[in-house]
Amino acid sequence: MNMLKVFLMGLAFIGLTISAKAHAVASGDCGANGNNLTWVLTCDSVLTISGSGAMADFEEQKSPWYEYRDAVKTIVIGNEVTTIGNNAFNHCTKMTSIVIGNAVETIGEAAFFHCRSLESVIIPNTVTTIGRIAFSGCVNLAEAVVSESVTLGEAAFGGCKKLQK
Known about the structure:
mainly beta, Leucine-rich repeat, LRR (right-handed beta-alpha superhelix), globular
């Protein structure tokens, strides 16, 4: 009987350990050079971009994770990613937070367009350019920490009514 208890407790522990790790829901490549960057969406609603170099640019509503956009709550851009592509995360309307790695230099056009639930963003000092309408339509964005030396594209923060200047 004691052996059975130990065995069942062991199974329970293994089950808890496995369930504590976030499992991939979907994944793929998203780099400007093919597989230089990869993306993974986990069951805890975190979309992570990792690898080295530039992200590809996408047509509107054509990023490889677009069909999962309503599941995304957090976006993490790795520390070796240099560019966030055009239209990369547009319409991720349930996304509330972004972590942008310290190698990012450019945020593309409409990259975070219409991310309605985003409330704050910290843009690293490495970013030199934020593209046209990059954060436009982020109606709940109340705080954006951006270096004064950043070049802002037209209406980069257009329609962000809660944003204080």
